[in-house]
Amino acid sequence: CKAYKHCFQQYKDLYDYIGFFDADEFLDVKNVKVFLENKKDVFSNFCCIRIPWRIYDDNNIVETNNNYSIKRFTKFHNHRGCKSIINTKFNIGNNMTPHGPLNINACDPNGKKCDSKDLFISNSIKEQNYDVWLNHYMLKTIDEYIHHKQVRLYPDQTKKSAISKLTLERFFAYNELTDEKINYLKKQNIRINLSDFNNLYLRDKGFK
């Protein structure tokens, strides 16, 4: 968050908007400049635009086999989580988070006002028709999740906090539990209790 604030202060006079996205997040819009220009009158009254996630699952791919292309993943579901594009003519204050500033005047990509205290967009996100999404390749394959995500953890959280969140239960909340993945975990000497993962694959219900 300190890096985000530093970036904003350093470059706010050079650009009209600054977006804060991670390396596994890709802005899905035909032309971001046109998108911002077309809604300039709407966005001009808001400090930031919340861009909702489309979270891609693992496509039931188990191992990478040295293929790290995001083109492996084609299935996604819309998610309330988001990141922000900030209008630099406003002051973002001190409440910066990895998802964007809090307690400021924010809107969704259609210009609808958002709750300034909430980093999520709306419970009815599936029903929204947006021109822009943030494609989020969050967990990738079970192979990458175990050997990269669970090792790297979250840089903005304590080790204890990150470990408590980056569990297999979390992985299978987004991805289908298959025999191939179970066998892979066994080969990694990772013991699991299958009863822990009942009904965790929430694609059709909408994960929150």
Question: How is this structure best described in words?
Answer:
There is one protein chain. Strands 1, 2, 3, 4, 7 and 8 form a six-stranded mixed beta sheet that branches. Helix content is 26%, strand content 18%. The protein has helices spanning 2-11, 32-38, 40-43, 142-152, 159-165, 168-174, 179-187, and strands spanning 17-19, 25-28, 48-56, 76-87, 96-97, 100-101, 106-107, 133-136. The protein contains seven helices and eight strands. The chain has 208 residues and is an alpha/beta fold. It is elongated and about 55 Å long.
Write the layout of secondary structure elements.
Blueprint: H1 2-11, E1 17-19, E2 25-28, H2 32-38, H3 40-43, E3 48-56, E4 76-87, E5 96-97, E6 100-101, E7 106-107, E8 133-136, H4 142-152, H5 159-165, H6 168-174, H7 179-187
Parallel strand pairs: 3-7, 3-8
Antiparallel strand pairs: 1-4, 2-8, 3-4, 5-6
Helix content: 25-40%
Give the overall shape, derived from the CA principal axes: elongated
Mean pLDDT: 84
Unreliable parts: 202-208
Main pleated-sheet profile: 6 strands, mixed
How many whole angstroms does the radius of gyration measure? 19 Å
Roughly how many Å apart are the termini? Answer: 23 Å
How many distinct beta strands? 8
| Contiguous helical run count | 7
The string of secondary-structure elements, in order, is: HEEHHEEEEEEHHHH
Class computed from helices, strands and strand pairing: alpha/beta
Strand content: 15-25%
